[in-house]
Amino acid sequence: MKFIIQRELLLESLQHVMKAISPRVAVPILTGIKIEALPTGIKLTGSDSDISIESFIPKEEDGLVHVEDIETGSIVVQAKYFPEIIRKLPLKTVEISTDDNYQMTVVSGGSEFHLNGQDAMEYPQLPVLHTDNSFEIKHDVMKEMIKQTVFAVSTVETRPILTGVNMKIDNGEMTFVATDSHRLASRSVKLAEDFVHIQFNNIVIPGKSLAELNKIIDESDDSLTISVADNQILFQTKNLYFLSRLLDGKYPETDRLIPEVSKTSVKVKTKTLLQAIDRASLLAKENRNNVVKLETRDNALQISSNTPEVGQVTEDVITDHIDGEQLKISFSAKYMIDALRIIEEDNVIVHFTGAMRPFILYPENNDHILQLILPVRTY
Amino acid sequence: MTHGYPKNGRVIFHVDMNSFYASVEMAYNPSLKGKPLAIAGNPEERRGIIVTSSYEARAKGVKTTMPLFQARKLCPELVVLKPNFERYRKASKEMFKLMAEITDLVEPVSIDEGYLDITECGSQGTPLEIANRLQQRLLNELDLPSSIGIAPNKFLAKMASDMKKPLGITVLRKRELNKVLWPLDVAEMHGVGAKTKEKLNQLSIVTIGDLAKADDSQLRRVLGINGVRLIQRANGEDERLVDPDSVFDFKSVGNSETLRQDTIDDTVLFSLLRKLSVKVAMRLKRKGYVGETVQLMIRYHDRKTITRSITVHRPIAEVDDIYGLAIHLFETHWNYDPIRLLGITVQGLVEKQNYQEQLDLFHYKEHLKKEEIQTVIDNLTSKYGYNPFEHKTQISTPHPTSEEPTTSFQKDFLDDYTKDH
Questions:
Q1: Lowest CB count within 10 Å: A141, A377, B297, B401, which one?
Q2: What spans are recorded as compositionally biased (Low complexity) (chain B) (predicted)?
Q3: Which listed residue (B113, B129, B141, B404) is catalytic?
């Protein structure tokens, strides 16, 4: 194998596939990166068997030459050293070659590295997805969907299914739901006309996979192709192939847990509320659940927090309107801040149904986003 | 009956380390011995405050809580050190170890003082002999001076340890109260601060003797229940037991038990776990605490010991909850080697009324049902004046509060001092 490649491009691709590589894997060869020189370009692969990422660098793109002098072949090199070496090489181009003993030579300017590699034949084959269940979505929409839900997945393994995001497609609408059982985030989007026939219900994508995917795909209106089959989900762009295992098990039914009636409705400036909660939480950091209290006033919400050892704080947030019953409720400032942060609209609507019941938030004039928070019970 | 032990009644030690932080520093660096030494919060800052000082410094008038600059004025050659808590913690652990060799009934009060109940220690010698030996060991093995008070109860033992410092051993007998204790100013009494002294003085109570003869109802009016307690103490009465885990309250409640013989018989092991869960739940209930973490300790036949814990986001206090989590830990972590000892501890304790519970999306409806039942119970309770569904009345235990101002650090060290019993 031999090729000469633009260093920047190689580095970017390496960073992508590194997202899938973990130093702690059951199969030792997976701590390495697979490099394949094909007649059409260079393919890099990284995998921890939960996530597998392939990044392709075409020989030529838009009239630009990225890779030259390709002699086909393949090798697996240590992920611990290879990317760092490429990062620190002196020139814009790198020459990479291998010999019959799986030795890799990296040359750039006057520096020459020899790395021990492994036979690429030993590297596990990535599963090939056979499915007709494919659909497309714009990069930036996908990134939004991820950002607005993935923070709410559970980070503890007590109920593994909750560490994932539930993807549902019904009636041409795709919905992401994530909950750690203390709060829930949901976001939906209309799919393009071509995909109305697609129907999914119990697809649960590990939160970690989506977080990594979000880091790799760029903010653009290019299309991302999503395919689902046999416990795997594949996200594909022009030069990227991102495969993730799906979580086993049934995702709990969450729709019926979302309250439909409201006893107290509030409309308030998103930013103002966010900042007030943020300030109140300064004193709440010491207490276990980071609890702040909210109390309805005539035309305001009173936000307060009291930690006996530290001090107390009170702040009134003027509302656009408050309808319904008087209310006193306590909740985690962190959950509230997480929920308000992803709302970009100026105004947020909050529906409460009592001090011991979940309450919901959504942006004014936007029913594609829903955030739900369970209160904290104080004795 | 061994000489020196009363027929009925107890023998209590109060062991008080002399200028503990300073003594520990001198033990580490003997060249400091004999020099005026102070430990201060922030030696670089002029306004740092003296935490403690050696007797040489005290002789020059240096006092605890005095600002540094004032201390330097009184004693220009004063050596000032920053507190080194790791050292104090280690020394404290060692000193409580020596005490624990005498009896299990050791109650640590703070990092540098504790009570011992040696009523049952007759086989080790007279109280005076035991005290002498303990003081010598503390001095020879740890290079730390102490004062020991010997008396029939905690209060008198505490007063006695105060009477001769450093390196004193003082016996305070009830029949000597009128000669030894009563002539003292009330402010000398443990539990009487500046405010209380002022109030007492207004009632013309100046000495501890005056307090002993004071009028019950009058003091109750001025000082509340504490007033009555003070009169009892001035008369040498104090029923408080030496409670080895009184200071553990805020951190954890745990029990462990050594099996009759090493075993792999799971019926025996499960029934011991059940028994320990019942004990821990009872103690939690008595203290009115709930926790979120259950810890299991397994000691194998070869003394290899593991502890494993699980934290849940709900209040743990009931037997079944504790037992359920302990069983879960046991089944996950037992390696099927013969077991010598099992222990269960509930940690992360908070008073039940201060517990905040994050509600759960999948269970809040059950919660609401319980809530409705509770509302009914509360209504009936207020109607009848008692809870018709409760079998046992709440046992109120006096809190081990504020007799002694203890910092959280002073309590932290107790984590090191866990022992099986």
A1: B401
A2: 396-408
A3: B113
Domain B182-234 has CATH 3.30.565.10: no
On whether any CB of chain B is under 8 Å from the CB of A184, the answer is yes
Band of residue B421 on the pLDDT scale cut at 50, 70, 90:
very low
CB pairs < 8 Å spanning A and B? 55
The model's pLDDT over B342-353, given as tens digits with 9 standing for 90+, comes to 999 998 888 777
Q: How far apart are CA A314 and CA A326, in angstroms?
A: 18
Contact B359 A377 (CB under 8 A): yes
Residues B97-137 pLDDT 10s: 999 899 988 998 888 999 999 999 989 999 999 999 999 99
Chain B residue with Cα closest to A182: B360
Please check whether residue A272 is in contact with residue A350, taking contact to mean a CB–CB distance below 8 angstroms. no
Of A182, A288, A289, the CB nearest to B361: A182
> What pLDDT, in 10s, does the model give residues B30-54?
999 989 999 887 666 666 778 888 9
Of A179, A183, A376, the CB nearest to B357: A376
ipTM of the complex: 0.81
**Amino acid letter, A352:** F
Question: Class of B250-358+391-419 per CATH?
Answer: alpha beta
The residue-averaged pLDDT of A269-294 equals 87
Using a CB–CB cutoff of 8 Å, tell me whether B351 touches chain A: no
Interface test with A, best of B361, B364, B372 (most A CBs within 10 A): B361
DSSP string, A153-168: S--STTSGGGGEEEEE
Q: Measured between alpha carbons, how far is A351 from B290 in angstroms, rounded to an integer?
A: 32
In terms of DSSP bridges, do strands B12-17 and B146-151 run parallel, antiparallel, or are they unpaired?
A: antiparallel
- Given a contact cutoff of 8 angstroms between Cβ atoms, the answer to whether B144 and B27 are in contact is yes
Cβ of B371 and A356 within 8 Å?
A: yes
Domain ranges of chain B: 1-172, 182-234, 250-358+391-419
Give phi and psi for B409, each to the nearest 5.
-65, -40
- What tens digit of pLDDT does each residue of A34-87 get? 999 999 999 999 999 889 999 999 999 988 999 999 999 999 999 989 999 999
**Which of A117-131, B91-105, B373-387 tops mean pLDDT?**
B91-105
pLDDT exceeds 60 at position B20 = yes
Q: What is the CA radius of gyration of chain B?
A: 25
Residues from chain B that touch A153, judged by Cβ atoms under 8 A, are none
Query: pTM of the entire structure?
Result: 0.60
Whether residues A379 and B352 touch (CB distance < 8 A) is answered with: yes
Spatial separation of the C-alpha atoms in residues A289 and B407, rounded to whole Å: 24
By C-alpha distance, which of A145, A138, A140 is closest to A211?
Answer: A145
CB B331 within 8 A of CB A305: no
Q: Can you give the three-state secondary structure of B270-339, one letter per residue?
A: HHHHHHHHHHHHHHHHHHCEEEEEEEEEEEECCCCEEEEEEEEEEEECCHHHHHHHHHHHHHHHCCCCCE
| Cβ pair B361:A376 closer than 8 A | no
Q: Which domains does chain A have, with CATH numbers?
A: 2-122 (3.10.150.10), 137-235+242-255 (3.10.150.10), 260-373 (3.70.10.10)
Categorize the per-residue pLDDT at B400 as very low, low, confident or very high, splitting at 50, 70 and 90: very low
Based on the residue annotation, tell me whether B403 is a catalytic residue of this protein: no
Contact B356 A374 (CB under 8 A): no
What pLDDT is recorded for position B389?
Answer: 63
What is the C-alpha R_g of chain A? 25
Residues of A in contact with B354 (CB under 8 A): 379
pLDDT at A336: 96
